[in-house]
């Protein structure tokens, strides 16, 4: 294997075992931590073997920047992930490459914009949804509850209104079931062996394990999405799009005669799935983790509330323009995203051409793991990288201070397509909640453990209960 490594010009790394590669070593602790520890031995660019497949790991802000930003084109490919591959077959935005990816990504970005600045801005949609969420919260003031499903529902409704043209009532059993499928998939992929599901594509069907649940969940989601598309086909007026699906159907009509067209039935299903799943789980997990952090640090929540009171008051709903006038709140939200690193390993990239990185020659197709969490924990970039500390984003005068090493959405050409939407949602939901409610923990803040319940593709927070008190 070593010889193969050298022949392929791969950077050095820990010695792999036959077949399993470095898997056993990688499973010895939280994957992101193990990779960061390996980096202290092997440097910022090193190779690990995920079973029979080598992966080049980028660790630390500088390596990530040198690759993803300074060589944005070369690093803009998507590395394949077996569990997704089996479902997407390289279709949709997130798991395609080349011209198909570029076309679909630009189309989706355009459509998101269109439904943002069109009849009703996305900001207004989020504000309306936040007000529905507050209504649900109001009804359970004083009673301890797990906020997961309500947050999932609220966040998902925003992307649902863009993609499907409708929102779902809180507690709608059919919709809650779908949201549970998302959470289930995210959790399985974030479990100890979650990464292994991405390695052995040809074995996946044969080996038993929870990944079969991922496949069943995906299948159920596919049925739901296909039904939505079918309904759209029946009710739409051509060239009068109500939402993303209508836009896509219009484009399909337009390119009907083009045999090379990227706008096909299957592509619509996968692209819709990307937006629906991508638009729900990460954002909602971030908000949920953020609330848990506020329970642990009530003094931080109190400071956010004092700033909201002073700048907005308690009656007017927060809007996006307020963000610039709320430096402390803005710093807290950045710090939440930095501290939790909800996708610690980002999504894998693949090289679109041969390239040099540092002293290494890397071949086209090389699978790359951008270890985003390592930028967030980089001691050369943050004052207090290992703790939750909003001053990581504040200067000496208490003004908000941005930092290029903040990269929860990954930098470069392949960065998260929904970053703007996600940031708007996080800001508007979080401030709406704290403006109206105090959050109380059912246990003492000191005993709250912020360590993720599982870490893999994602960092999933431990389940918790909270009690709301109206302000
Ligand atoms: C806190 C919330 C979110 C986080 C932390 C997040 C993070 C990420 C990351 C790290 C990637 C991989 C980028 C790369 O290739 O390096 C990604 C991709 C993607 N995200 Fe997000 N995301 C969030 C919310 C959203 C939302 C709201 C949407 C819905 C519009 C979305 C849609 C996508 C899509 C479609 C991709 C694939 C992009 C591509 O391959 O070109 N994400 N996201």
TrEMBL record:
GO BP: any one term: xenobiotic metabolic process
Superkingdom of origin: Eukaryota
Swiss-Prot/TrEMBL cofactor(s): heme
One annotated GO molecular function: oxidoreductase activity, acting on paired donors, with incorporation or reduction of molecular oxygen, reduced flavin or flavoprotein as one donor, and incorporation of one atom of oxygen
Protein's UniProt keywords contain Disulfide bond: no
Membrane topology, from the record: Peripheral membrane protein
Residue ranges that the Swiss-Prot or TrEMBL entry lists as coiled coil: none
Predominant location category: endoplasmic reticulum
Subcellular location: Endoplasmic reticulum membrane; Microsome membrane
Recorded GO CC terms: endoplasmic reticulum membrane
Statement: the UniProt record of this protein carries the keyword Membrane: yes
Pfam families membership: p450
Keywords, sorted A to Z: Endoplasmic reticulum, Heme, Iron, Membrane, Metal-binding, Microsome, Monooxygenase, Oxidoreductase, Signal
Residues that hold heme according to the record: 416
Similarity comment: family membership: Belongs to the cytochrome P450 family.
Protein name (Swiss-Prot/TrEMBL): Cytochrome P450, family 2, subfamily t, polypeptide 4
